[in-house]
Amino acid sequence: MPRIPIVMPQLGESIAEATIIRFNVSVGDVVEVDQEIIEVETNKATMGVTTLCGGVLKEILAEEGVSYAVGSVLGTVEATEEEIERTGVSTVREGVSEAVETQEKAGGDDEEANLHFKTEDGGYFEPKDVSPTVQGLPVPAGKSGAHYISPRMRARMNELGLRAADISAIPGSGGGGRVTVEDLEGFLEYITDWPASAASPMRLAVADAMRRSTTRPLATVGHPLVMDKLLDHRRVQNPKPGLTLYVLRAFAIALSESPSSAGYLIGEKIVHPKSFDIGCAVQVDNGVMVPVIREVDTKTVSELNSEYSELVDQARNRRLPEGSLKGGIATVTNFGTFGLTWGTPIPLPNETLILGISAGVKRPVWSDQVNAFVPATEAELALTFDHRVIDGGDAGRLLSRVAELLGNPESL
């Protein structure tokens, strides 16, 4: 009977590969169309790979713990002609059959057995091994290092998967303090016996995003927030909304009143957002995920509560639905949950703004009503922004508006 490929799908924008976590079926098992048979991990979430048609799992061509590029054939399903016609899928072409034979001869423990396949004009062929898309060594940042990188040095860095920031800790012996290949090799030799651990795909993805984010001129402004009214309002709600949700809502309203603040600088134009979709940063193992809540400015806090809670739970379990990590125009992060009283968050590369809120602290705050200092719970709002798009004055006015809205939580 004909065989149908199980192909590594495109699991999200800019995702080029995924790592096999586990197989939910074994060779010889009967599978159904759209059955989730393989669990994979990208740098953003854990997802499933499904079958294109029903049949019998004939082969598994992938290994657990190994990364495979989009388009790689992970296995094959043997199906009847009727099932193929019903589902409208095509069979594995001759090129795959030959590659499968090569893999079977090589054996499971040989490096050559770890074959990758990709689509090309409807067929499947064996390309070169796929390397991780993001690489790097745990080299600490420092003040010394290279301003100019020679072609020879650049080539060696490319071999090691290093970026310019990764060599900033290395004192250079070349002209003008330039780091030479010899300096790099000596540093690598120096740290050979240092304790080290493998960085997770998510950790590497966060590192890559932050590298790209900091290529822009970023600045941060702060504003105090007296939280007593907000805490009193939250206390009588059922269910109680998270504090982050109040900040999300106030941020979206303020941005809807000043949409250019969340714009993108593209050439000589600032492109304004079509809708006010705000991400919320969620701490997970080895990194951060930022699910996006759509049209936050059009929904009240109570209307957003269940959607927000569900997305946060899905993010912590790394089971976010497809598309939930895309399209945000700004992010809110509550670093106060870690007891921090101040921070300078960094926006994602595709966003102009990120708003953070610190932990609340009891402080004496002046009251015009009683003409004296009174105890109050006060937090700090911190807004980091792309200085190419907005200036400090506009950022300050935006942040003041957010604080004003949070001071009247019944309006949210």
Describe the structure.
It is built from nine helices and 21 strands. The chain is of the alpha+beta class and 412 residues long. It folds into three domains: 123 residues, RNA polymerase II/Efflux pump adaptor protein, barrel-sandwich hybrid domain (OB fold (Dihydrolipoamide Acetyltransferase, E2P), Beta Barrel); 48 residues, no CATH class; 209 residues, Chloramphenicol Acetyltransferase. The protein starts with a strand and ends in a 6-residue tail after the last helix. A hairpin with a 2-residue loop joins β12 and β13. About 13% of the residues have low confidence. The radius of gyration is 26 Å and the shape is globular. The strands form six sheets. Strands 11, 14, 17, 18, 19, 20 and 21 form a seven-stranded mixed beta sheet that branches. Strands 1-8-6-3 form a four-stranded antiparallel beta sheet, with no helix packed on it. Strands 5-4-2-7 form a four-stranded antiparallel beta sheet, with no helix packed on it. α7 crosses α9.
